Amino acid sequence: MTITEKILAAHCGKKDVRPGELINARVDFVLANDITAPIAIAEFERIGASKVFDPERVALIPDHFTPQKDIKAAEQCKLLRTFSKAQHLKNYFEIGRMGVEHALLPEEGLVLPGDVVIGADSHTCTYGGLGAFATGVGSTDVASAMATGEIWFKVPESMKFIYKGSGFQKWVGGKDIVLHTIGSIGVDGALYRAMEFTGEGIHGLPMHARLTICNMAIEAGGKAGIIVPDKITEEYVKGRAKRGYKFYDSDADAAYAEVREYDISKIPLTVACPSLPSNTKPAAELANISIDQVVIGSCTNGRLEDIREAASIIKGRKVNPNIRLIVIPATQRIYREAMKEGLLDVFVEAEAVVSTPTCGPCLGGHMGILAKGERALATTNRNFVGRMGHPESEVYLSGPAVAAATAVLGRIGVPEELGL
Question: 46: burial class by Cβ within 10 Å (0-12, 13-18, 19+)?
C-alpha cells in the first residue's frame, strides 16, 4: 500500500484498503476557522449534538478576518469564542495567541505524523508535509466529525512525484517546486488523488518547504499532499508533539495511478500568472510586469524561514516607491522570533508594513485589498479572478525570494538582479 492507504486502513480498523473503497475513518484532529466554523456550529446544533467527541482534538482558529474587520466578522468570532467556552475546547486561539491555522497547528504540535486530519478549509492538506493524511472538507462534515470523531472517505488513488537531481538552482524553494509541478499537470491534474512527493530533492528539504509543497496540493485538485516522514520530520515534531504519533511509509510495490519525474536542477524561480496557479512561467521571463503591491505571508509562505529569506534580500534597500509591501508573519511565535532577530526592523526600515498574524489579503479579506486594475505579487496560494479584491485586479504568485526582489525593483524580478 501507499502511505495514504496505510494511514486510512489504520484509522478504519482494516488490514488494507484500496482506491475507490468507501470507509468510515476515525479522525485525530478537526479544525475550522472564523469563516467556516459558524456554519459547522449551526449544523452541530441542528443535528442535536451536545458535546464534541474530544475537547482536545478540535481547534477553532479565528484567522481570516481578524483582528475583526467589521461587525459581521466580530459576530462570527464571538460565536467561535462562545462555542469554545461552552465545549471546553483546549485549542481555541484568540488574538495575541493565534496565527494562521495551517502554520499554527504544526508549530503547536497538534497535528502529527500518521494522523487523519480534517478541516473546514481547503488548505488543510498542508499537514501532509508531516506525513499525515490531511484534507479539507465542508462545514457539515466538520460538524459531524466534531460530534462523532469519525468521517467517511472514498480512498483516493495516489500519484507519485519524484524529484531527482544533484541540486536546486539558487533561491529555488518549496513554492517554486509546487508551482512548477502544478504548471506541469494543471489545476485538475490530481483530481481527488493523494499527491505523494518523494525523491532526493524532497528528502533534503526542511520542514517549512515540505509544508509549503503540501499546502498547494489542492491547487492541482488533490485530495491530499503527503511526504513520507523521516529524520527531518522527527527533529521537527519531537520537541513539540502534544501526543503520540506514528511514521508510515509506502511499500516498494505500492500501486500508483500515475508517476511523474522532475530534474530538480531544471526547476526555475517560478511565478503563477493570472488567473490560475497552473499558469506558470519562469520569473526571469516576466521582467516587464509592473506590480502595485507585494504580500509576503499566508499559510503557504509566512513561516520564519520565509521571513528570513525575504529580509536577507530587502536588507539595506528600500521598497520601490511605486509598491506597497505588506509582510505578515504567520503566527505570534514567528512574529516574536522575527522581532528578536531584527527582521521586522529590516522591513520597517525599507518602508514596508508589518502586520499581526492574519490571513488578511490572501482571500480578499482585509489588510491589502486591490483596486480595479491593480496587480499584486504574493506568496499566497491562489490567484483566481477577484481573489484579492476587485475582479479586474490581478494576482501573481511566487516564493519569498521573488517577492522580495519584486518589492525592491517595482516589477517582477529575481534576486540576481540585485547582485544576490
Answer: exposed
Q: Is residue 201 domain-shared with residue 347, that is, in the same domain?
A: no
* Residue 381 DSSP symbol: S
- Domain end residue (candidates: 262, 289, 315): 262
Which residues 6+ apart lie within 8 Å of 65 measured at CB? 34, 35, 73, 76, 77, 359, 365, 366
- Of residues 191, 188, 217, 189, the one with CA closest to residue 129: 217
Closest to 310 in 3D by CA, of 366, 352, 357, 358: 352
Chain position carrying cell 494543471: 186
C-alpha distances out from residue 67 to 131, 198, 399, Å: 32, 38, 26
pTM of the model: 0.97
pLDDT tens track for 373-384: 999 999 999 999
Q: Would the CA dihedral through 303, 309, 314, 316 be positive or negative?
A: positive
Are residues 179 and 99 both part of a single domain?
yes
Q: Cα separation of 322 and 377, whole Å?
A: 13
pLDDT tens-digit map of 347-393: 999 999 999 999 999 999 999 999 999 999 999 999 999 999 999 99
